[in-house]
Input
Amino acid sequence: MAFAQQLTSGLQRQAVARPTLSAHRRTSIPILHATAPQAADSKRQDSSNGSSSPAPIPVTKGLTVNVARSMSSMDKALEVSIASSDAWKALQEHVAEIENCHLKDLMSDQARCEALIKEDLGLYTDFSRQRMTQETIKKLMDLAHAANLKGKIEAMYSGEHINSTEDRAVLHVATRARRDQVFKDEGKDVVPGVWDVLDKINAFSEKVRNGEWKGCTGKPIKSIVAIGIGGSFLGPLFVHTALRTEPKAMSKSRGRQLRFLANVDPIDVARALNGLDPEETMAVVISKTFTTAETMLNARTVRSWLTSQLGAEAVSKHMVAVSTNLKLVKEFGIDPENAFGFWDWVGGRYSVCSAVGILPLSLQYGFDMMEQFLQGANAMDDHFRSAPLESNLPVLMGLTSVWNISFLGYPARAILPYCQALSKLAPHIQQVSMESNGKGVDIDGNVLPFEAGEIDFGEPGTNGQHSFYQLIHQGRVVPCDFIGIVRSQQSVYLKDEIVSNHDELMCNFFAQADALAYGKSREELRSQNVPDYLIPHRSFTGNRPSTSLLLPELSAYTVGQLLSLYEHQVAVQGFIWNINSFDQWGVELGKVLASKVRQMINLSRTKHRFANNSDGFNYSTTRLLNKYLQGKTQLLYPEPRDVFPAELLEHHPF
Output
């Protein structure tokens, strides 16, 4: 595609995706207006300065044919898209009404606030600081019905193969099902198989924890290294970080440690193994196919670390697997009896409740603690399936995000837990959300006439306040999720302080949401005798949306609830946009290209030559690759030998 066509097509997508811009984003982005469904009148007056929206960009004659082709493709996509529905168009038209309202005025309506505060399962969720009214909610419910949201939720729970590109069911809810529940894949109830694995984890983890299972030298296992990447890492790490300072979990994990090894960078290996006694260490290798490149290289590295000090027999006592490929597990040296399975209907980023997360976490905290975590997730699963859409927490969170992204034009979200134990929530949800919904086509392969997906990031408060809050207060508009805890895992109160440490933290939780909503006007600043030259710099527009979520405590149970809540919110977004939230083809291309580079580096190390034009790389990559190779000419592979992480860091500069 020619650059001019790419530019025009890109502008066209913006026009359909975000035909109206909020007051915060109004002046600098040119919009090419299309014949596709429009939002509010493009000539409407800006709510803050009275200026008209920017005029359409003129299309030159040279671009006419390309634009026509692009428009034809877009029109076809619109015919089958949710964007062509009356409910979508009604929300587009509703944007103008919302842009004439400021949150400080909306917040003065007590009836509205009451309608936008929901409480269920012990979770208090406040949507009143979102740029919505009761009418917005009604229109979003109409959109949910137009998208058959309820039917799609039921299809997921019923085991229909809604992951159509891989012809798979999506049944991560079954990994935390109660024994008496039924979830079927191709007519077979999968719950008994789930509990077979969970019971096996329970028995195995208890043997390890009580010292019955010993390493090859007779010492008990005290340290666990979980080797996995992506969903095999981020989800379990989130749960571990959330529980490690919870009093009950702390008592159950005393004298034990759990570490994670994900990155293929040897530095990660060095840090994961640093200070560990191999005689007391067990590695859990997590790979469904036992072929994941990064995971298996790390697994081989840890195996070499163990066997070099304990002998070849160490593998059977110091390494176990979470995998379905028992053949490769056995070839690796792990006893297939010490392999814990999971299923194709569990996507990696949704697998923390399977053996992927439950095995290493049970080895650290005990199965009874992790069963509470599963029960919390299950409770939210039941709520998501059965609660009316109007009071369904994941549904409301998902629809709110769709409103912010597809109609108000806010593509990002900040996840801001005012709890240090939730420091790994944002990285995990980042994968769950962006790998699920970062798609450019719908479930049938049609190009989307709008941009889907949400850019998620976050940091615990108050750390984030001293990092990126400047931008979300006075720069770009970024909707926020504020997450607070009523009872802290660790309470500190100093007698000379007017509030406890946790109360001090929560003061910021309450204040930040209001600061974003209300802002601070020039008039207020003048009344406080702020010099005129500083007023523009100290003004806050406000009108910046957020949701506040308050949990009674952070326990294994509520961590499970929180996980399920965000998983289902992501599913709701995908169901509305009609995309497949459960495949991830976008991660494949880079892996294929990396294998070609891997062959080139091996050739360089063994044949002592650099890349050239005949190797099939472009000029830029060839030059960049050779720059890397030239800086490491001392690393040759004349004969195979093991170089362990400590040696890498202590003796070699590479």
Remarks:
- Confidence is low (pLDDT under 50) at residues 1-71, 648-654.
- The radius of gyration is 27 Å.
